[in-house]
Design brief:
It is found in: Cell membrane; Membrane. This protein has helices at 23-51, 57-84, 101-104, 115-134, 143-166, 171-175, 183-201, 206-210, 217-236, 244-272, 277-291, 300-310, 313-324, 326-330, 337-355, 358-365, 381-387, 390-423, 432-437, 439-443, 466-472, and strands spanning 87-89, 92-93. With 482 residues, the protein is mainly α.
Length: 482
Amino acid sequence: MTNYSTLPPNLIPDDGSPPWMNKGDNAWQLTAATLVGLQSVPGLVVLYGSIVKKKWAVNSAFMALYAFAAVLVCWVGWGYHLSFGDQMIPFWGRPNVALSEKYLLQKAFLGMFPNATMVFFQFVFAAITLILIAGALLGRMNFHAWMLFVPLWLTFSYTIGAYSIWCPTGFLSLLGVIDYSGGYVIHLSSGIAGFTAAYWVGPRITADRERFPPNNILLMLAGAGLLWMGWTGFNGGDPYVASIDASLAVLNTHVCAATSLLTWLFLDIIFFGKPSVIGAVQGMITGLVCITPAAGVVQGWAAILMGLLSGSIPWYTMMVLHKKIKFLKMVDDTMAVFHTHAIAGSLGGILTGFFAVPKLNRIFYGGEGDENGIHLNYIGLAYGIQMGQFQRGLRQMWVQLVGILFVIVVNITTTSIICFIISKIVPLRMSEEDLVTGDDAAHGEEAYALWGDGEKFDSSRHGNSVFEMEESRKPRGAHAEA
């Protein structure tokens, strides 16, 4: 850490900021981190709580809220250094606490801002990954099992992918995998892990699988809107600098998302006759996921093509293939994260290897280049063919596929082991009786009471105030306080 006592007075900033810090970059990085945090809280909390049946609204929203809080504690305790610390093995950092003042005020491993900013920025990415996994498990996972799953999966799965691909010393980073902002580390991981966990937890009860209508579509759209707008920070923050590359990444993100939404919408109209609001949200998500590994390293026209593909290929796998493949039908993936995140994330990774622009890669990655500023290591296949560098372009495609395979294998393995261990401690799945009841059985609370929908307000158990509701939860009988 800088020793200000040795600096000339004219070099010491009035606010005590170190000379290496760029205040504009630091301000943007904190803003981007906040935008990503808002995608989870309240974005996905609202989206999950409103897209499920009324009886699961509280449980679904609370799974997201709990994950956000639990990940932060684990992240500063050991997760950050496992993901970005000193190398322990080629795919894992050395665990350590990231809370000491001396460490937090030092310069981050990339960017002109302190570690405190980087720790927070990387935390919101880790948190949203766990929350996306929750989407596959809504409507039946035992909340106590979820409480154990979050820290275990963060520790033994997320950190491996983050270190391998994003840390400068990770083996896939050194190999040359392009994952601009988390198509692999976040979306492919969460899609595979969510699908795997859904297999081990088991399906919802038959009544819920057959009919699972949203309890509030307008509120669902509000959550989806927060998710979409928050992606400005998701992809715009990953250059770690307020640069032209960040601006390009933001524009490409929204262009791809809009194109994907419209593509999905038109396919729904053509094949099913009606424009589905839920379908439009799914198309929005697949577009955002697909562009994420490529956001700042492709041209705008490529972002549009990626939107067309992300709005059609996941639509086909979800609406057609899913109904034909027995194994896919057997696994109850509540929010279809396998299609919206695993398929869309893999698609984005492959298309990145094809469309990545060498000049833009040089801006993002730095490093060696020729006299025209062309990066010598990161060349998309399309540009490799154009430039007579076919072998380099083909290598980039191969590297992208290796990254996909690694993430899939790691997440199937670690998620399965974690679910097995948890099942020996607490049941992964709620009891059949509790599955029929929902929120009231899981938490003793309900989202809201609607008169006239068959619900009756039990004043003996739930009062009109928070105080009265807490009073109703006090122990009864001989062991109750006098």
